[in-house]
Structures are given as C-alpha cells and as structure tokens.
Amino acid sequence: MGLIMWIAGMSLFAFIATLIAIPWLVLRIPVDYFAQGRRPRQEAPRRHPLVHAAFLIGKNLLGYLLILAGIVMLALPGQGVLTILLGIILADMPGKYRLERWAVSRPAVLGAINALRRRAGREPLILDG
Predict the structure, then answer these.
(1) Which of 9, 90, 18 is CA-nearest to residue 56?
(2) Beta strands in the chain (DSSP E)
(3) String of b and e for 92-110 (b: at least 16 CB within 10 Å)?
(4) What pTM was computed for the model?
(5) Is 125 helix (H, G, I), strand (E, B) or coil?
(6) Backbone φ/ψ region at 124: left (φ over 0), alpha (ψ -120 to 50), beta
(7) Is 129's pLDDT higher than 60?
(8) Of 63, 83, 102, 129, which shows the fewest CB atoms inside 10 Å?
(9) Using an 8 Å Cβ cutoff, are 126 and 31 in contact?
(10) pLDDT digits (tens, 9 = 90+) for 79-125
(11) Which among 39, 60, 42 has a CA at the least distance from the CA of 104?
C-alpha cells in the first residue's frame, strides 16, 4: 500500500510539474531557435568550474530521472509523455537538437506552441523551410 501511495504521489507531482514547466520553457525559447540547421551557440555563463560542473550534473540527473519516470508513467497514472519531454529538454544528449526540431516541426505541436506563445504576447516560433 505504501508503494502505491508513493507512486501516486510522484505521478501527481510530475503532472503538476509538467503543467508548470512546459509552458514556462516554451515561452523562454528564442523566436529563431529552430530556424537554423544546427543549435545556436550560446556563451556559457561565467561560473566557478565546480559550480558549473555541479549544475550540469544535477540538470542531467534530473533530466534522465524524469525520462525514466515518464517511461514508468506510460503504464501507470500520470503524464508520461510530457514527463519524458521535460526530461529530454533538461538532459544533454547527442542528437537532442535534431529531435527537438523534428518534434517542433510537426504541425500540431508547432500550432500548440505558437498558440501558447500568442496568448502570452510572444512572437511565434519560426522554422526554416
């Protein structure tokens, strides 16, 4: 019984976290982020190397944990797909930008993202042809 309650609690937490995090992350995407064939280079913030390493390790651990939790939630109650997407956004992995571009280029996904951005007063994302 305790395990079921723990799983239910984690599912509820992941559901609420994805409802908050996904729109927040979508609104932070630069308008032209997906307009190039390669991921735009961003200058890394100036931090102490240990702080930077700890941040990267923590972000990636959280991302991969969310991916695993999302996979589990595909069979259990919860927002499995949204949790997996949030994990992919956080984790650093080869081919991530290509996967993001592919997902965003789907008409239904791009339409939903741009509708959310429009409601928040942001410009729609632009993709290259």
Answers:
(1) 90
(2) none
(3) eeeeebeebbeebeeeeeb
(4) 0.65
(5) coil
(6) beta
(7) no
(8) 129
(9) yes
(10) 677 678 778 878 888 888 888 888 888 888 888 889 989 999 999 98
(11) 39
